[in-house]
Amino acid sequence: MTDIPKAARVVEALIFASPTPVSRRALLPYVENEDQITDVITSIAARYDERSGVELSETDGHYAFRTRADVAAFLTLERPIQRPLSRAALEVLAIIAYHQPITRSEIEEIRGISLSRGTVDILLELGWIKPRGRRRTPGRPLTWGTSPAFLDHFGLEGVDELPGIEDLKSAGLLRKGQILGGLGESGHLDNDDEVHEEGDSDDLLDDDFLDGFAEEDA
Hints:
The chain is of the alpha+beta class.
């Protein structure tokens, strides 16, 4: 499909109808080549200027229509719902988010207890974590990381937007003397697939930090 305006209409309809953010790869069948995707996305985004109540957002190479922040408050409905995640699942999710890519044994070492298979299954069912390949170490253990669905749910463009170590300290969510293994001196996430610095505390995060994940989910 070489006609940019026509391709933009098709892609716009595809993103609008999709229940989840659409990846760039999923758009390839509707354009002549990958270079056209940028032109198509730009064309679609231009239709939803500041006069519109929605906008085309991009999260880690995935596209979705979202309500603009200045009108979202008028559409917010507050209702009590049961939190689907247990504390264990929230803790594992937080560890994966800050230590990715991380193996099952590394998660267990940080938590100080064994990891229930059901906990991983819940996070997989939600689509918030995904396999990140195998570590180049004996046994080739599988590593885990967060998914685009995780970023989309918590309103993040990338894992680099997660609170850094100084942010956690200033907010009182990191106890004195604790260190998050995935956060170095710079306060940013270490995403090295080959080297992983592990934390040494089995009580890594304060309750308030884990509650933050639950509140976003509620």
